[in-house]
Design brief:
Elements: H1 2-30, H2 39-47, H3 63-89, H4 95-119, H5 128-167, H6 173-185, H7 215-231, H8 243-246, H9 253-265, H10 268-301, H11 309-334, H12 350-353, H13 355-358, H14 363-378, H15 393-416, H16 418-424, H17 426-429, H18 434-439, H19 456-469, H20 476-505, H21 518-535, H22 538-546, H23 551-583, H24 587-591
Helix pairs in contact: 1-3, 3-4, 3-10, 3-23, 4-5, 5-9, 5-10, 6-7, 11-21, 11-23, 14-15, 15-19, 19-20, 20-21, 21-23
Amino acid sequence: MPRRRVLAVAAAALLLGLLSPVLAHCDEHGGGKCSMDMPMNATKLAGEQPEGPQSYWSLTNHSGLMYAHVALEIIGWLIILPVGVMFSIAHSRYTLPTQFVFLIVNAFALLLGVIYNHNTPELYENNAHSKTGWAITWIASAWVFMGLVQVYTDRKNAHSFEHTVSESQPLSAEAMAQYQRVQDMQLPNPSRWSVDSGQGTERNSASLFGHSRSPSTESENEQFIGQTRKYSQDDDDEFEDNPEKRGFLHNTAVDKFLSRNVARFYVGRTFKVLRALYVIIDRVILVLGFLAIATGTVVYGGIARGNHIFNILAHYIKGSIFLGYGLLTLGRWMGAFADFGWAWNVKPPKEVVGRRRAAVPSAEFTESFVIFLYGCTNVFLEHLAAWGGAWTAQDLEHVSISVMFFGGGLLGMIIESRRIRELLNSSVVLSQPASHYHMDDSWQAPKSYRFSLNPMPALVILLLGKMMGSHHQSSMLSTMVHKQWGNMFMGFALARAVTYIMMYLSPPTSFLPSRPPSEILTAFCLVAGGITFMVSNKDTVAALESYDLDAMFTFTVTVGFTALLLAWTTVLIAIKGWAARRENTSQFAKRNAGALA
């Protein structure tokens, strides 16, 4: 422990020694930030800083520790952790090593943060970042621990299953031949893994293969592959003999201890609960990481104090929703949720993907429902910052926008209702006898009915962008920043309109993703607009004005970060696909490895 403490202090001193001269120079001439401007202009900027509580952003003492803390957290939560999540979804052998690397990097970042807090005054009392950061760290640690437990429990189950089979009655030649036929075919099963993301790219994913199956083959598949899935995961039956499968704990004392003791405690219902919690954390851990980063920007910038917290919350929450919407749109273009029919493809029937996934509503219905839900709830939140005070014209404008979301979302859900569409056709259908209706091709449903063409979500966001782009703000900079994300949302709507035109002229005919190129534009506009939405809060705009930064600064930084984020997201999905193919050893998957390239 003393040796570690000495190393930590030495590292902190080294970082501080390297950065102190630069930071001191920046503090003297740039008001706490480095600048290439003339000294006279820098003095002017320093004098224009707003009066109020000091923030960590303007604090130069031990700032090197803070920069190192931020850099390590970005590396851990935006680079290493997403890769670990992708490996986990793909059931890759590299999951645990990546998770442990993340824990190590995050631990160093936390250590630097603790040292920084110990050596600097408390400038943001009772802040949310410290509490949420530690809570999310414990959740991530529990996630890694549960993954480790699952590995050793699955190994124990696989070993027990093999022992049971070897001790039971010998397999007949007929049964062995039947099993070999199933292994050669390895047809997809309608059921999925319990931790399948539903993105249509996992191994054995029925949404990837639209091939028909005979009843005999299907029954064989369910009999043997179902048993394989129950007792073995990712070739766990080879885990004992294959050093690569066993990973970095192979034949260590920790490995032997876990092999002997884990399966004793985590069995039956306890193991099922553990696996369910692991799957849930797998899906939300990145969102929790984003929450920690968002609260970190608030505390570091010293914003959202007092009554301003409502304005910050509104912009951060709404902007985050559009940011997530953009990433989901990019995922749809890449082929995510193809088994739901969300990847601009023909929705696979229940015989291919199962009854539960076939019952999932369309993406347009989901978008309309979210818009409707936002309109319902936000009507009561627009006046929250001035509760008890007089209603202003701006409050009424915001409430009107919420009403537009309510009505537009409701209309979008109505359009997506099959029952409603059938009722709308009643006047035409009832005008002809039933015999003509079933025999004449002229009475059959058009091809466009097979695909959802619902413009309401795009229309609502188009109008929102137009309104906010013309919305009066307290300063010219605030007005221009609002106009930026308003124009981005309008660009999303126009790009989505291009997608619908292409889909109407040439409806999709395959279960595979069609990947319309216009959807890349929609994703880019949504992500960039969402980030700019978050930045357009009053406190951040005031800080930009105090440093004499214009709207072009926010625009260039936002679009640059958006391009990097979308590129990294695409790489992550590709990593998941690579890991899934590497783990899938079936002959069928190997023969069809390039089908979706």
